[in-house]
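Entry:
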Amino acid sequence: MAKRGALAVLTLVLSFVFLFSGLVNAGTVSLDANVQASIAVIREMMDIPENAIPPWLFHQAHAIAIFPGLLKGGFLFAGSYGMGVVVERNAGGLWGNPVFFHLVGASFGFQAGVESTDAVLIFRSIRSVQKLYQGRITLGADASIAVGPDGRQAQADTDIQLRSEVLSYSKSKGLFGGVSFQGAILKMDYQDTVKFYNYPGVAPSDILHNSNLKVPRVAQRLDQVLDWYSTH
């Protein structure tokens, strides 16, 4: 009887692990689709004035990370996982080529019943970007992070949070809210980045501002959208 009980528990645990893995894979079916979803996330967040990332803050960003559809786990553990892109602004003020990252962390304080959340992280310091492109960064430890102010009327001199190196924005089921990303880990995905550009033998950090690189059309559209919001 004890063996049967242990076997049942093991089966349940393995079923959950495979289910969670399936959800993760389902969220990252196509790299092109992930970039396209990132474009949609930025547009949805920026096109509603009362919830938008303040334009002046968007203009100040050194890099931006976009994670569409972060998946939330539960049952035996509370955790979240998602794949997205990080884009850095170049010396000329334009946005470079997107590089793929994974975001993993403990429970991010999602609203009850919410299974996925779209997230945007604004990197406001060169130091935090340098940490990011070392391949891995822990938010809150390697770079300070806080929930960012929203609305087009938000003012820099009235927000204590703006001392943070990274500001976060999130949207769950159409609702905008403050989700804490303290302790979350961002890890560069070398394999998917090289696969996306079909550029083997080159580190993703070298892809960022490589003007000779043949960039997929969907990545060009992402840059165009980011450039538009950076100049309006």
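Strands lie at 63-73, 79-88, 99-106, 116-123, 136-138, 145-147, 166-172, 175-177, 185-188.
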